[in-house]
């Protein structure tokens, strides 16, 4: 029956009218499938891929993790329908994009000081976990530092001549790539780096560059000197025992003790960490020793009451030095601050027995222009 043929106010007519209204309303309110999905365009996927890749690069996360079942599930729960990049993309095109972005940002920041003598180069070397010799060079603009290059020296001997060659290449790269000029060079005070600075004075291209040693590195050496081995060796013996032996370590942990720290020449302020954890754990060590659970050699050391007093005295000395070291290894450290911190160490009463050591290290670390900087700094004015 055609609903249009029904006339009047009969029940049949009313039913037909209701059906028409229902059909009309249904067509207007029908939901679309797109309302139940999250669409990710090609442009959006590119942005999301880059943001995920930066997380992996910045936090040194294994690229293999991006294909983990649980990582993929997490991303798809946050953005249904979006698939994260593969590890091949992380190691390939996305890495190139991130590298270019960093380079462009660096160039734009350096352009703000274009034409000014503003770049300080810093060089350091170490061995990787695979014992590969690495040399890293970074740039400092006075406000911020940037990694310039990292080199695996391979079969080349990492001596002063090789480091001089690397420095020349770095100076040329700063000039050609970033249109900036290097006016200063800072390194640690290892033997070949000292020789490198002497060779710079004889080189026509580099002799105009100011070169100096790292005051923070010298103060770290000083920290080792103000913690004499005559006392520290007994503290280290106790610390190693409770760190390296399973049962004593477990007993210490059950009593709420701290993890014993051991000095390390390449980890700054490690002498302070060793002494501090020894003092905080001392009475727990003694308590365990009184329970007849330790070796006799360890018990005998802990039974010496003067050891704790000597450790407290060492702590006072090291705290003064470590405070200066913390200031000089900060991003805001300057030559002017370095002079001030050396003078603070010289004037410290607790370090009176080590005045000669402090003065020697200060003379090795500072150059005449350090004092000029200190005299011109409004904080100190010499």
Automatic annotation (TrEMBL):
SUPFAM superfamilies attached here? Ribonuclease H-like (SSF53098)
* Family matches, as InterPro entries: DUF659, RNaseH-like_sf, Vacuolar_transposase_reg
Q: Which GO terms describe its cellular component?
A: nucleus
- The chain positions of domain DUF659 read 85-237
In Gene Ontology terms, what is a biological process of this protein? Answer: regulation of transcription by RNA polymerase II
Write down the Pfam families for this protein, in alphabetical order.
DUF659
Q: List residues traversing the bilayer.
A: none
Task: State the source organism's domain of life.
Answer: Eukaryota
Identification of the protein by name: DUF659 domain-containing protein
Identify the species of origin: Armadillidium nasatum
